[in-house]
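Input (structure):
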C-alpha cells in the first residue's frame, strides 16, 4: 500500500455519529494514552509533517478526527486516555463517545493501539486492549518512540509489553519511531490486511 502525501486530507472533527463522514472506505482507529504519539504516527503514515497536529500540551485532542488517506482508508484519531488533568465529567464524556464509536461503527476494521516502548503498559492500556478483544476488534500494537531506547534493549521491552497485555497470537506487535520511521513498511503491510 502506498499513500500519496498530497492526497491525504483532514475531513472532520466529530463528537457524535451524525458527524461521522459517509464514505465506502474502511476505518482504522488510533488509540493510546495521551502523548504516546498518535498524531505523529498519522503524519508518518501520511508522509506529511503537519497534517495531524502534534500537541505540545497533552490531552489536546478531544474529538474524533477523521483523515482520508488517499482514498484507501480513513484514519480516526481518538483522543488519548489517561490524561490526569481531565475532570471526571470530561472523562465520562470521553468514555461515552469512544464506546459509541468502537461498538457501533460498521466501517471500523481495526484499531492500532499505540504503546510507548519505554514503559510497561499502563492499566488504561490493558483495559483498552481487553475492551477491544471483548468486542472482537482486530488490534495492531505499535510500540512508539523506539528511537528512545537502545537496540539491544528492544527485545526485552517488546516481551514485557506482549506479556502484560496478554497479546493474542494473531495480534501483531511492531516497534516504530516517528523520528526515523523505523518499520514503517511493516506497519503499512499490517494495516493493509484490514482495508
Ligand atoms: N522521540 C520520539 N518522539 C516522538 C515520537 N512520536 C511522538 N513523539 C513526540 O511525543 C510528543 C507527543 O506526540 P503526539 O503525536 O502529539 O502524541 P498524541 O498521542 O497525538 O497526543 P494527544 O493528541 O495529546 O493524545 C511530541 O512531542 C512528539 O514529537 C517518536 O517516535 N519518537
Ligand atoms: Mg494527538
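Output (sequence):
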Amino acid at each position: 500500500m502506498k499513500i500519496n502525501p498530497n492526497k491525504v486530507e483532514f475531513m472532520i472533527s466529530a463528537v457524535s455519529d451524525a458527524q461521522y463522514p459517509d464514505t465506502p472506505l474502511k476505518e482504522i482507529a488510533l488509540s493510546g494514552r495521551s502523548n504516546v504519539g498518535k498524531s505523529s504516527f498519522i503524519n508518518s503514515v501520511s508522509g506529511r509533517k503537519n497534517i495531524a497536529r502534534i500537541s505540545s500540551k497533552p490531552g489536546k485532542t478531544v474529538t474524533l478526527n477523521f483523515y482520508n488517506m488517499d482514498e484507501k482508508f480513513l484514519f480516526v484519531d481518538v483522543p488519548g486516555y489517561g490524561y490526569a488533568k481531565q475532570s471526571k465529567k470530561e472523562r465520562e464524556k470521553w468514555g461515552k463517545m469512544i464506546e459509541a464509536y468502537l461498538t457501533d461503527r460498521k466501517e471500523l476494521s481495526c484499531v492500532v493501539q499505540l504503546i510507548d516502548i519505554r514503559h510497561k503498559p499502563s492499566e488504561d492500556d490493558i483495559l483498552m486492549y481487553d475492551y477491544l478483544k471483548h468486542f472482537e476488534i482486530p488490534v495492531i500494537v505499535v510500540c512508539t518512540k523506539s528511537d528512545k531506547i537502545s537496540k539491544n534493549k528492544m527485545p526485552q521491552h517488546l516481551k514485557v509489553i506482549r506479556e502484560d497485555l496478554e497479546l493474542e497470537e494473531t495480534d501483531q506487535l511492531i516497534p516504530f519511531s516517528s523520528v526515523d520511521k523505523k518499520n514503517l513498511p511493516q506497519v503499512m503491510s499490517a494495516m493493509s490486511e484490514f482495508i
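Notes: The CA atoms of residues 82 and 123 lie 9 Å apart. Residues 32, 34-40, 54-55, 58-61, 80, 144-145, 147-148, 177-179 surround guanosine-5'-triphosphate (ligand 1) (CB under 6 Å).
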